[in-house]
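Schema walk-through. Below, the input block comes first and the output block second. Nothing else is stored per chain. Lengths vary across the set, and this one has 579 residues.
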Amino acid sequence: MFLMKRSLFAKILLSMLITTTVPLLITNYMSYHTIGRAVKEQLVELNQSSMAIKMSGITKYIHDVSLLSYTYYGDPELMRLLTKRETQTPAESVYIKQRIGRNYAAFPEIRSIVYKSALTNKPFIVKSDLNERIPMPDFAGQPQAVEDGGEFSQEYSVVEWGGERRLRINKTFIDTSNRELLGMTTMIVRDAELKQLANPLGTDEDSRTYIFLQDDLQLLYATPGPDEDQDWIKRLREEPRAVKGLLNDPKGIYIYYKDDAYNLPITLVRFIPQAVIDQAGKQALNESFTIQLIVTVFITVMAGLISYFMLFRIKRILKHIKHIQMGNFDIQAKSTSSDELGVLEDRFQEMIKQLDILWNQQYRYQLEVSTARLKMLQAQINPHFLFNTLQSIGSLAIKKNVPEVSDKLAELGAMFRYSMDIDTEEVRLQDELEHLNYYISLQIGRYQDRIQFKQSCQEEALAIPVPKMVLQPLVENSIVHGIERGEGTGEIHVEIEAAKKLILRVVDNGRGFSEETIREIRDQYSEQLIQHASRPRIGLINVFKRLQLYCGEGFVWSIESEPYVRTTVTLEIPYQQGS
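--- output ---
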């Protein structure tokens, strides 16, 4: 929470994540249900098409089995024996069993075959592997048993035999000439062939397939599996008669397909668990989610990069503002972008330049005030009185035969005359060097052999105009801070070159500057206020400030220091060549 309050980047990133993930989550939720419905509809359509194909195979198979009884008509001897009204002899009975059994030999799944004559009421057990007897109609006692809607009137039915569901086919044998009932063949068929025909429907491990006979839905076959609630069968019986349809259940869906081909009502039902439907939806959703996750990561990374670069530029502006608060207006940053932030940075740079001009005007005003105060102080001392007094002391020194004192007083008087000339702000470099030489002469007289001074200057540089009192404060700084507090001999060398800029270089071997002191001088130089005498190195900094105001942005200064070896203060002053 603290990071959210303090970090604009975190706010932007979190906002982008929320605006990206929330629509994606809503879309995924809607897609999941939409895909689930689409998968469900597709499963229903595919299964119903497959069930139509399987239905034709199942009905044809049952119909072909039922048609085997018509082979009786193609055997004249068998027809003769089956149409006898007298009871057949044992030999004739054996022949009948053999001939009928031969007709059904191609279908091993027919486990029991019984023929009962309606003329003699005699049963012929052609084939049987059952421990229980197959019930047959009593034609003597109930001659209309196969016609009045009794249990033998249904051609196809389901019976449980030996704990198994089996198909029972009752096929009547009729005299084609007079439509007289001659007898009935009853077959008990195992579901082996039906299983092979139906199993391709049940490709899923959890799915189940059912085969029902007749309109009352007698269950003939069911895919092996755990017992389940049979309420759905009741609901299916109550469904309006339709070729195909669907029953919804909390556990899944029941797809059914009905057919009445060959007057054989068969209903196929396929149960598909809800987990299968959900799995298909989840698989599609996972693929979609993977793509969305990649898109989300991409959007987040791009949002992070865009936010970072935007905030980087804002932080750069804040950094510049901090420098301005510290008084540093020397900010050389140019925006390379033309967007809103680029325009803001350009306007900000223009504002800095205007502020710099205002600060410089303010500084000049303060400097003029300080100069006016200095001039007022200087004016309190009558220069003529000072010069006349020094000349009188010099004359007295000559009378007393002390010419050195007279010379030093003359040099001191020249320095006072130069420094107290308040009407002159700019002088030739030659005048500045002459004033420096007077100062050095006085200092050498003071320190004797502790100071060695050298001066080198290109002749063409002597006429270049410079602000007054530039070199003497630098040399004074070298003596006071570099040599006066040290031991041994101090060397001071003033080098002057005139190239593209006027280069003034003061070199000494004194105590020099530490890195911390140089940083402090730079910080004080960056401030846009007049330096007070309580601040360290005030003379050095004020020289830099005066030259900055005099020269503008073209002025450059530097300090290089190796204590007690070489310390160099360099001033680069632009000038007009040929002036």
